[in-house]
Every structure is written in C-alpha cells, then in structure tokens.
Records
---
Amino acid sequence: MSDPSIAIIDLPSVPPPLVSSTDVAVEMVDVNKWYGEFHVLRDINLTVMRGERIVICGPSGSGKSTLIRCINRLEEHQKGKIVVDGKELTNDLRKIDEVRREVGMVFQHFNLFPHLTILENCTLAPINVRRMPKREAEEIAMHYLNRVKIPEQANKYPGQLSGGQQQRVAIARSLCMNPRVMLFDEPTSALDPEMIKEVLDVMVGLALEGMTMVCVTHEMGFARQVANRVIFMDGGQIIEQNDPVSFFTNPQHERTKLFLSQILH
Amino acid sequence: MSVTTDTFVRDDLLPAKAPPRNTVGVVGWLRQNLFSTPLNGVMTIIILAFIVWTVTPFIRFTLIDAVWTGPDRSVCATATGACWAYVKAYLPQFIYGRYPIGERWRVDLVFVLLLIGLIPMLIPRVPYKALNAIFLIGVFPVVAYILLTGGHHQFVGSLIPSSLMAPSPLRFAVQYAVFSAVILGLLALYARLAGRPISRTTTPAAMILGYIAVILVLVSLDFGLVPVETANWGGLLVTLVVAITGMVAAFPLGILLALGRRSNMPVVSLASTIFIEVWRGVPLITVLFMASVMLPLFLPEGVTFDKLLRALIGVTLFQAAYMAETIRGGLQAIPRGQYEGAMALGLGYWQMMRKIILPQALRIVIPGIVGSFISLFKDTTLVIIIGLYDFLGQIQASANDAKWASPVTGLTGYIFAAMVFWAFCFAMSRYAAFTERRLDRGRR
C-alpha cells in the first residue's frame, strides 16, 4: 500500500469543494437500524455540509448502502434522527415526499423504467411531482441529456442502450428534479470497465458544479480526486473518516489498513 | 519461392447452382418436416389417418348431409345431418330471447353502438383514444341501460321516513344530496387532517358524484320507450351483458384488490385477502345460487332486486377475485428497483402505481387476463341455473320445441353454440396475442 495513487482511470483533477460552514445538507444523529435481529447500522453520526463530496467505502455487508438509503427513506431507521435539508425524516409521509423531491438517487442497477422512452423517464417526475408543463420538462430533460452527452438517444427505450448510457440517463433523470443533494449507490459496480469512465466523468462534472454528493463506491481513484471526505464503514459502524490524502496514505485503524491493502495493490 | 505452389487464386467465381430437388419446394418441405425419419413418417401417416377418420364424419354431418331450409321438423325428422333450418328459424330467439319483437331494434342499436365504440378502440392507429374511452366507459353503458330496460325509473327514496317526507323523486333527490354532502365533508376533513390541498381531494369526488347524479336523472327520464323486464331478456343479449359487465367491472376492482393484498397496511391487506379467498373458494354456481335464492331471504320485505342485476353483481365479484390474483402475479414480477426508482424521484403511491408499476405488471399478465376473460365468457352459461336464459340456455330450451323436435335438433343446436362461443373466444385470444406483440416492440 506504499503507492496509493492507484487512479487506473484517468480523471481530471478537481479543485477542493466550496463547503458551506453553516448550511447543513444532511444530518444523522445516533442512527440505528435493525433488520429483524440483525443490527445493520450502529450509532451512525454523520453531518454533510452543503457542497461536500463524501465517498463511503467498506466491505460488502458493512451497511454503507443501507446508510445512504436511509437518507431518502428507502430504508427506515428505528432509532436516532435524520434531518435532510432541515426536514426530519419520521413516519410523516409528506415530509418523506418533500425530502425525496430534493434528494436525487442513482442506483447500482440504474432502475430506469423500461416501458418509457429515455425522454419520458426524465420528464416523468418533473411533470407528475413538480407539476411542470410538459414542454418545459422536455426542455430541461434535453438540457441534462446533453450534459450527460446522449441527447440523440432521447426517443429510445432503456433496453436499447448500453449500461454506461443507461446509468448516465439515470443521472440525468435525477438532475431533472433539480435536487439539492445527490446520492450514488455503487453507480459503477454493474458496469463493464470500459463504461465506468463515462459515468465517472459525468459525476466529476457534477462535483465541479458544486453539487452536494454522497457516494458509495469502490472507485478509489474517484474518491482520491473528487471527495473531500472519505468514510470507511465496517460492521454497520463508521470506523474511520478523513480527508482523502490522509485516508489513503495514513490510515489509522487496523481494519482500514487491511481493507485498503486488499483493494489497492 | 517454392511455397508459391501452395497458393491458389480463383480465376472465375462459381455461379450459384440449383439445390438438390429433394430439399426445396413441396417435396423438400414434406421430407424435412413430415418424413425426416422412418418414425416420423409412420407418425405422420397415423395422425393423418386419425384426422381423416374424425373430421370426415363431422363435415358430412355439418355440411354434406345437412338440411339447410324447411318450414318445420318434417324436413329434419329423417335427416342424418345437421338441421340448420331449425337454427335459422330460431336465430332471433337465440339473439334476443323473449325480448318483444317490436322493440328488438333497441337491442340492435345497442350492438351497433358497442361496435362503433369498440372497433376504433381496438385498432391502435385510430386517434382520439381518450374520447373513445369516455364514450365506451362513460356514455355507452348509460345509453345501453336506458335502451335495453326502457329507462323511466321511479326513484322514491327509502331512507328518510315517510312521516317526514312522502315517497317521491324529490325525496330521493334530497337523500342523494345529503349523501353527497356527507361524503364530500368527510373527504374534506380527511384532506385537512392529512394536510393535503382540500380542493384536490374533493374536486374529483364531486365530479364523480355529479356524474352519478346525471346518470340517475337520465335513467329516470321518460324517453317514451316501452319498459322491458330483464326476465324477458335472453340469448346472446344476456350472454354479452353478463360477460361484458363482468369483465369491465371486475378489471378495476381486481386491480384494487391486488394492490390491497400487497399493501403495507395490515387491515387493507387482510380485508383484500379475505375477500379474494372467499370468492375464489366458492364455485360460481354457488355464488349465483346464493345471489338468486338466498339474498332475497336477507333483504327486508318489499325490497326486490332484479335477478339479472344480482347475477351481474355475483359474477363481477367472483371474477374480480380471480382478476386480482392474476394481476398480483404481474405485480410480483416487477423488480424492487422499479419501486425504489419511482419512490426516489418523489412519486406518490398512486402515481408510482399508475405510471410505473401497473403498466409493466399488466403487460406481463395479458395472457392471464385474457384467459380469465375467456373462461368468464364461457361461465356465463351457468346463469341458466338461476333461470336466466343466456345464449346456450335459449338453444337448449328451443331444442325441446315440438315444432322442430327431431333426432338431430339438439345436436345441431349444441354445434351452433360451440361455434359461436369459439368464435368469440378465439377472437379475444387472437387480439390479445396481437396486443402482446405490439407492446413488445421497441422494448428490450
């Protein structure tokens, strides 16, 4: 682990984020979650400031996906407090809907809607959730499809696109809702190596624009270059968090060292 | 360079030659598909012999030896083939039952309106689908109801005691107004508690209540049509009324039950499950029998309920339970990611179901839905046990008529019934296959 500069994928260097010192995007206080008897999240405390770019890594089963899925309440936490954009997530369905409107999410398996065209995938939520006129929604959708460099695919169906293209559509679909926070749940794990870069490039672009991002990923190159904070989880707990340089060059906890030694050769 | 002896350059390209005679054309096809091996050859011959052996007598009976014209049983008494003359003579009865002859144009008009509404609806290229659907679902049933029954219903209302208000259409109107006000009030209260905009909850409800009010007014108006009791309906008319009402009413009910059964709310889920399991666990004959014989025992004296209506309700609820299970199968086939993708975008439950889940789930279960529509269409014949004469019942009844009684009359009638039922069911099946192919295009 002597040389952690393992950026196999050549990503543009990204200046450090402009992190707000007062504006809290996501706050998790003593969050605990159980699946039946199984304690998946243990006393999670995490504050994400506006503009921060956080990468969460850890072995599989460590609870990292569960953690970010709690942020938009795809998973329910049983103890503790989660506040997103000033709204606390409780059983209040209205609050949950409000949070989901402001938080975009990109999934490992894209979760595009196969019966709708790319354009319809992108305009569905703005039209139905934001009550935006169709024409305006389509303009915005085309803007973001341009951003992810696939405007020419707008009238195709997801099944006709490659994995990398589908994931870029999924990102564009989230952006159409103009979210304040973006969550990425292993966005490149289901992609062929060739396609990973095109998705990471889009994510880097988002970072450059100052998007608040929480990203579960195994792309350590991305973490080094984009994140301002790397969080290592194991056994449902946050084991270590640090700025990327210190995290990769000088990990403190034995578990972190072991993990890094296994993924960085 | 000695290696050059191995090189070869073709000077002139070979022209295409005709294939061997025994691989193309009729002979080739026969060889490849019917006689490719000795065993295949033997099986081909045996099956051909079987087809000839069974189909020949059938064709002899229905076509060659058949009697096509004649005034009464005398022409069929000694016939060895089908007595089509009898079918011809009875055709109006098979279609209309005992519907008064002078009023049968009303039934014809309903059939024509149905075709006018249905045919453009079934052809994907024809525009104005929304208007078409409004006609078919919103307008046609009311018009058909008025035409078939004659309309001019006397609503008097029965909830407000007679001491307060004499039975009259006015009393009914007052009742309906009170009922509507209560419903709207409850909805407004609910919307307020849930913190939703009140008008968005109450406006659709008010529109539905208003629509029902319009229907009630329309069916109570006197259009000068002679009332025709449902007891006089029969034949294909009853078959189609029961089948179409059953399909159209059971479909949305089935969707709601399927969603209900998968709901996170224990009460909703339990209630849906109980409803489905009860109706699925009871034979349709029992349902019809209960509806026709038992139900009147529970109703207060003087309250009568049309027999056909009771059968319709029974068939609809029965069908809804089956429909629900079919649709639930489709819902279960939708990956969790689709739900999560929709929820993460902020779509509410109903938006998610309407836009994302149901369109995909229903497409998967088209074969199942059509299957249960087809079995419903055939099951309508069971209404005969409660004394309604559907198409088959009408044929059965007429076969015993002394005017046409002959050894072949009954058989002819059943063959005719089978052909008509087959034509309807086959058409449904083919249309479903067409829809499946159409929806499959461009996806995946």
---
Amino acid sequence: MNARQPVTLLIAALGGEGGGVLAEWLVDLATRAGHPAQATSIPGVAQRTGATTYYVEIHPQSFAELGGRTPVLSLAPVPGCVDLMVASELLEAVRAIQSGFVSTERTRLLTSTHRTLTTFEKMALGDGRFDDERLLEVAAANCRQLAAFDVDATAREAGTAPSAVLLGAIAASSVLPFERAAFEAVIRASGRGVEASLRGFALAFERCAAALGAPPAPGFPAEPDLVEIGYARVVEFQDAAYGELYRQRVERLRAAERQCDPQGRHGGALVREGARFLALWMAFDDVIRVADLKSRAARFARVRADAGARPGDLLRIADHLKPGLAELAGLLPPAIANHLLTLETRRQRDGKAPLAIPLKLRADGLAGFFGLRLLAALRPLRRLGRRYAAEQALIERWLATVESAAARDWQAALELALCARLIKGYGATNERARNNLRHILEHLAAAKPETIRAARDAALADEGGVAFDKALTAAGAPPRPVPPIPVRWHARRSA
Amino acid sequence: MEVSFSKEVQQLRQGAGETFHGEGILAITKALLQSGVAYVGGYQGAPVSHLLDVMVQAGDTMAELGVHVEACSNEASAAAMLGASIHYPLRGAVTWKSVVGTNVAADALSNLASPGVTGGALIVVGEDYGEGASVIQERTHAFAMKSSLLLLDPRPQLPNMVRMVEQGFALSEACNTPAILQLRVRACHVRGSFECRDNVSPAVSRKALMDDPARFDYEKLAHPPATFRQEKLKFEQRLPAARRFIVEHALNEIFPGRRDDVGLIVQGGLHNTLVRALQQFGLADAFGDAEFPILALNVSYPLVPEQIRDFCAGKRAVLVVEEGQPEFIEQEIATALRRLDQGNTGTAIHGKDLLQMAGEYTVEVIAQGLLRFLARHAANVSVAGAQDWLAANAARRKNVASQLAAPLPPRPPQFCTGCPERPVFSALKLAQQNVGPVHIAADIGCHAFATFEPFGFGHTILGYGMSLASRAGVSPMLKRRALAVMGDGGFWHNGLLTGVESALFNDDDAVLLIMKNGYTSATGTQDIISTPDEEEKAGAPDKRLSLVDRNQTIERTLAGIGVAWLRTVPSYEVNAMRRTLEEAFTTDYAGLKVIIAEGECQLERQRRVKPWLAGLLKAGKRVVRVRYGVDGDVCSGDHSCIRLSGCPTLTLADSGDPLKVDPVATVIDGCVGCGLCGENAHAATLCPSFYRAEIVTNPGVGERALDALRRGVIGLFQKP
C-alpha cells in the first residue's frame, strides 16, 4: 500500500443492517487516531432492505505527518482500487465483485457466508436460489485474500447487529493501521449496546482471523438410500401393505432402468429419483396426514425452538387451516364425493366463492389437539376415499409412461420420472400441478428428453403457466385447456 | 421520525474553536446558523431530509437564536416562504429533493426570482442524480438559467461546503437574487469535519420582531408592468453584480498545474472525482496537485466570461467536465469565448464530445473522457497506466460474468417486515383474480415498492400525489375501472387537490386507495397533519397497536369536500380489503370511490414497541410475543405464500428431508407477528403449513398451572 495514497474500504450491506453505523465508527476510529478520513453512502430508498454500499477512505499519514496538507478524498469507490471489501451477505459481495471493484492484486475480501435470499430467488415454484458454492468460488477466485464466515450467525450469537461483527472482522484483517484496542474504544464511545457489540466484535475478530486465507471447504454429504427412506415414509403414511405397493413400484422402475441401462452407466439415477418422488407422491398431504404431523410432540418442540421460547415461557400454537370442500370430499367414497364436487363446481360457476372452513385451531389446546388426533385416526379409511383413488390412478399412469419411455431411451425415462416433482401444494395449487403433469404425460410421452425437461422447467417457471404453454407449443403439443374461471367485472357503459 | 439526531443537535450549538464531525447535509445546517439565517423551511426527501429533521428536533437551539422552522406541506409552499426575503432583510433557507421538488416549486420560484430579494435567500437542493437516485434524471441547472437564479455546486469538502453557504447568502444579497445550493447524493451523506464559527442570531428574528410591515412597493410585485422591468434588471444589474462578487470573493477556485497548454474546467461537485481520475494517469497526487490547471466552478451559474477567458488564455484546449444533459456550461463557455475573442480564440473547447452525455460521472467515466482528450491535445502524456487499468476493469467484469454463468438476481428495496402496505397489495392481487386485471395508477411513496416483485403493480408514476389525476384520461376510455394508489404523504403533498378535487368536480368514475400509515414513511417517517398525536402514543396502554385511526383528518377532509363513497379497512385484514376492492370495482355507484387502508407505519410502531417490551421484561411483567412460523414437513415447497407476500422474514430453507429437493418456506428471526401470513393462508386458501405462535413470558401462576395440566393430558395421547 502506497503510504501517500488513502486506504479504501467498500462496504456492501442491506438497508437497515447498520452499515451507516459501521462507516461512522470507521471515521471516528481514524479521527481519534488523528488521520484524515471520509465516508459516503447512497442510502436513499435502499434503506428499506435494498442492496446498498458505504465507502470509506482513510489517509495513512496522520495530520501531524501531513503538516497542514489536506488530501483530496474520493466520494465514490473506484473499480480495482479498493483495499478492503466488506460484505454482510454473500450475494452482495459477489455483486461488488461483478461491478469490478475487487481486484486480485489489491483487494482483501471479508464476506459473510450466509445468504439473505432475494425475492426473485424466493418466488420460484421450485428452487430459484442462486448456487452458494458458485458464489463462494467466485468470491475466492477474484480477490487478493478471502476471509469468509457467517456474520449473521455471529451477530445473533452475540445478540448484536452485523455492524459490530463487521468491525471486528475489519480489525482482524489488519488492513487499517490501528490497534485492536482503538477499534474497541470506538465501540465503547458509541455508548449504546456496548457489551453486546464488544462480544460480537471479539467473536468476529477470532473467526475472521481464523478464516483469513482459508475459504470454508464445501461439504459433500453422502447420498442416503432414498428407497429405504421412501419406504419408511410410505409405511408411516398408511401401513405395511402400502409400503409393499411402494416397493413393487420401485421394482418396476428398477426393471425399466435395467432395460435401458443394463451396465448401470447412470448409477441407478432413474430408480433413485423415481423412488424419491414416488414416495413423496404416495405420502400425499391430505387432511389426515396434516392433522397427524401437526399434533406430534416433535412438532411442538420444534415450534418452541423456532419461536425462541425460553424455559418458563408458555407457548400457544394456533394453526391457520382452511380445508376446502375438495379436501374433505377427498376422504369420502368417490360416489358421494363426486356428487358433492359437481355441486361445488356449479356454485363456483355461479361466481360464488369456493366452500372452505377457515380455522384458527389451537393445536396445543385440548379441543384442538384431540380434534387433530381424531382426524389423524381416520387413516385406515383413507384407502376408501376419492383422493386416494385419484392419486393411485395418476401414479400408475406416470409409472406406465416412464416404463414405456425406458423401452426406447434412459434419458427420456428419467426426465419423465422427474416430472413427478411438479406434484406439490394443496387445493387449487395441487390441482394445477396435477393437470400440468397429466398434460405432459399425455402429449410429451414420446418427446425428446430435452423437450420434456424444458416443459418441466417451464411448468415451474410461473404460476400462470405462461412459460409452460409456450414450451408446450414449442414442442408441438397443444397448450393446456383454459380452465373456466368466473370473472365478475363491471363493464362501464360507454358515453 | 425515523432518525434521532440528539448528538447532531448538540453539534449545532458548537462555537468558534470547536470542530464539527458529521454528515455533509448537517454541516450545511450548521452553516445556515453561522450565517444568521432567520427562517428555514422545506419538504423532506432523500438526500436532504436530515437538514429539516435535525432543525425540527433542535427546537430549543432554534428558539434561542430566534430562528423560525417550518415543515412545509410541499416544495411549493417552501419556495413561497422565501417571499419573506423580498421586502425584509431576512436571510431564509429552504430545502428539498431535486429535480422533482424544484418542479413542484417552479411557480413560486419564478415569482420569487422576478422581483428578487433583499435578504439572502438560499435553496438547498439534493441533486438526486446517478447511483442511488430515486427520481427521473434531470438537471436543476435548467431552472437556475430560466429564472436567473444563482447555482452553487460546491467542491464536496466540508469546509468548502460551509464557506459556500455563508458566501451564498452574501452573494444572494449582493445581487438581490435567490441562490440554489446543489448537493449530490454522496455530498449530502459525506462524513467529514470543519472548524466551527459561532452561530449568529439574526437582527430580525422571532426574538426581535419588526414593528411594521414594509411600505407598499409595486416594483417588488411579480405583476405587470413591474415584471417587464424586472426581466431587464436580471441581466442589466443582478447577474453582472453576481459575477463581480464571484470574482472578488474567489468563489470559483483555480488550482494551478505543472503545465499550462491544456486545462480542465469542472463543476465544483465533481472536483474530487476528477482528481481521482487524474491519479489513474499519474497526473495528480493525493493532495490534488495536478499536471494541468483546474478551474473548479463552485458557482456553475452564472459563469464569469472574463474568468473563463483568462483561464483559457494560451491554452491549446480545455476539457469541460459537466455532469448530466444537456451541456449547459459547455455551451455557455463556448459562447462566452467566441463573443470575447470575436472567434479568434485558439482554445479548443471539449466536453460532451469526449465525455458521455448522460449518466453519473464516475472516476471511470471521466478517465475515459480524459483518455480521448489527452490523445488529442497532450499526446506526450503517458496514458498506458490508465489504459491498463480501464482494460483490467473491463476484463474483470467479463471474466466474473462468465464465472457466474447466470446473472445475479437484483435486490431492489421492498416493504419492511410487517409493513401495513404489503397486505393491501396481497388483497389487490387476490381481488384481480376475481374481477380481472385493472389499470393501476401508482404514486411516489413506499407503496411504489409494489412495482417490484412479487407484485409488479403499477402502470404509471406521474409524480408525488399525482396517481388519481394520472388516470383521469384512462378511466373514460376503459371498460373496467382504474385504480389509483396514493399514500397519505402524497395525499397531503398535493393529491387532495390535483386528484380528489378534480375527480369530484368532473364526476369521475374512479377508485382511490389511500395508504394511511400516518407518516411520510419513504422519506424517513416525518410527521404530517394526519399523524397520531404524541399524547395518543403516550396514552396507549398497548404500544403495539396501530394508532393511525386516532387521527381522522383525512376522513373528515374527504367527507367535507364531498366524497360520498368512503370505506376504511384495517390494512392487515386481507379478506375484508379484497372484498372492499371488489365492491369498489363492481358497484353501480359511478362517482369517486375512496378506500382508506388503515395501518400505522411499522417502523414507527417498532420505535414505540421495542423499548416498551424491553421495559416490561426488565420489570418481570407478563409479556406476550407473537411470531408466525411454517411447518417444514407440511410445506410442499411451492412458495405461493411468498408470491403473495415478499416479506423479508418469510424466506426459504433446505427442507431437511432427503426426499424433498425443493426448499421449504420458513419464517426467520425478525418476524414482528403482523399477521399477514395467517391472513393470506386464509384469504388465498394457501396451505395448512402456517401457524401463529404466542410466547408468554413471565406468565401468571394460574395460566402456568393450566398449561402444565394441559400438556400433561396431551402428553398421554401424543405421538413422538
């Protein structure tokens, strides 16, 4: 570092994380040590949890050494000319890297390993999250030295804000010509939440020091035996006999895969993935299943932990349930159920709202709890219900389609098997998913693997199914029939 | 108010010998007091909100000095306030966000500039341009030129910014012309220090009142025939006086260079950036000593032709570094030189021909312009270093983009956790599923975040409080009704008149949705006329409750002006809001329909709640905390709940189930238990994953016993 050029720090943070406080601390730090310093920011509306940056310049010579000369400090960071890049969130670190601020020659990078997901990532119907591993790789590959640790967890552990934690990391990086004590003095002088801030500072100081130059190695968990897990799931869902049905179906998948991949070149991926989604599908979420899950002791304990209830605190759990007629009819024998459903469809065609019972059910209250257990106890009757029959029919259809595809091409069979991933959600969402799958099985059973994959991804692209229909037409298949939705709108008479 | 300035308020009292440390905009505030300002007004808006906020909080200091502080209802009323300086020897300052605020103030500004001022009038504008800006990208410079106002663009170093405020008043008085002090976003938020001087209590003030009003003087009216003379005065007397003052007091700074054959003219506000750009070429040191002479225009309008000529004398070429379009300064310089030297000037003038026309002038942008300039007029200067640096930047970006393979998801601002406006848009999304899509006229304010995902609502934004007016031409042409969304901030800023009054007067068939959160939240939760009283807040037994219903000013105003269809709905009641919206869109009532979404700004509520709860816990009192959650094993990973909310604390986590590949929804720390998750689960029949957890700390003996009993019984029948 040139002794006559300012030390430059760029801080990437989310609005409301205390980046402003951090910048203020750094300026105070330099000022107390008698060095010229300047910080700028562009909060604006970004202070509402948007991505923003704070920029600090500190001149390495003290006022005394400068003898009256005042350096001209820049208000904005310069690409490639940042000495220390600090990020409270991994994606924001990489955003700064992509903007060109971080250089492999000059910039040390302190970043949190944790992700605050963006709305875009969260909205996806499937998994829209940006690949963490890749973010970390890019971070490691594009700076002079990397120190990555979980700033968010450290802050929560110390019961303080990310700002104090980041200050500790900055101190540990020793990019600034100041002693640790000087940093801590600034926190003390700030006067608010000092103890917690110092705790966070100390934790971060050691974690950052440890992390310097040693990017966290991505762990590779061993692939568990999905067939066994699936079997257990299905038995727990219904009974041993149902488990046997699961095993039989898996065997059919195995036979199919053997047929198109005798040497097992693909390591049994078709069976593994097929078994995965088959189990999730066979253990479909109906009222009985949900009631069972919601009334378990493990669940009560989990809620207690998630809610951060301390020993001695009382916990009340109110479940927001709204079983619709469709869900309830699903438990009834097809004959009766279908009758009810036709009535319901007629009602809705007349523009009436779907029949559903909004419940705020106290799962920890006696009435609520026993209500749930009562529903869960209906399990043996499930086999008689309409939903059960419908699911089995579609599962068989899917399985058969996979089998026939396996006769010609392993890849096609796999892509079709993976389409079972579309089956998710409750009520209308679940209905939409089933229709999408049915449509693929109907029209793309003989299509090329990439076509099937494209359609599957498209089905998970947007709720309205715009991308899905586009993919279908591209594949030469008909778009889905437009479902009749009664739209009540008021036409204004033209003058 | 969002920020507390207790520390800064103390600094405003500092006197000679003390050093001020802090934000640029607060240094400006201190400088106003050092200049003997008598009255201050303005309208909040980034990046200048803090000027007014700190003055409002510094009531005592202002009272001691006799300074009057007015939180104006909009920029027009702030600009009109400067009328006090037309007749009276009063120094006045107003502030707002530009260019938008200046647009709103334009009428009053013209009528102020024409008669001119006796007391110094300073308009501090935050030039919201470039990175971090939230408004249309235009220059305030044009207003200064068209109304012959002075435009100060200080070199962004606190001592110089302070000097420009002090000199600005003197300059304004020397030429009877109001002055605009323009500060870019980063200059407003720059943290630095300067040596204070004592505050000056104005000769005429709230403490030293004038006995009589000024005598009638038609010449001081912006009214014909006076206006014709006033226009002549501008260029015959005022601007010449301004130019004399600028030169005599060396307001513009000339930094000598080591060579004199080429020079640089730069807006004061860009000086630091220019110096940093020169450093990339090795043409300047850390202290700004440069190879070429630099003329820094702390006053960018009017220019002083003679000063320009002298600077250019003997130079082969000059580069004008001027941000934004069009290139007013460059044109003025070219004209000045041509007139003065009858066109014989040997100096080539460059600017926007070598520098980019639009957008912020970053170090990189200026360096690229310098590169072209030097290649043409200083070929003997080595530019290799800068070229390598620029090339490396480009290569780095390209390289990283390819490593990432996919573009990074953007992270725009969004509604805060527990914001009362989010549920309204959830309801609007659901309502449109039943009544079909509607035209949505959006507005300025937090609710504009609904234009981002997951909502993507809003066809147009025509300005602050303009939404209802902006659909006046749409509704008559559309079979379905149009919706105008407006905040209470926009309503009082001008929505009441431009929108409501006009719609009523024309019997428009319109739907107006007013977000009544009680503050101008987007600008930092400043109070407005419909903000709940401090007494209400102090008196509320449960500090968690929304209190905006305690102030009925908006409702009474609407009733008074003649709104016949008015519904008030608590904003968190998604189903009720959905039904009300559907009714408004489909009712036979053909007039203006107004829905008030009532829910206090969550930021303000939390400012009350946090200390209150902490106090109760400290005292060992019973406290009930509400938090929502998701059962991961019930969630199927479809995320429709998120597409209906977008709350920062409703996010995703790995399912923890080896079978489930898709992440499941989860509620993280920070949930304030606003209730939207539960409301949406019911209103949209989402899924049974959501639960509401109530954590009772320091419970009573009775409930503890009851709870133990209950858990005992349940334990007997519970599955592990």
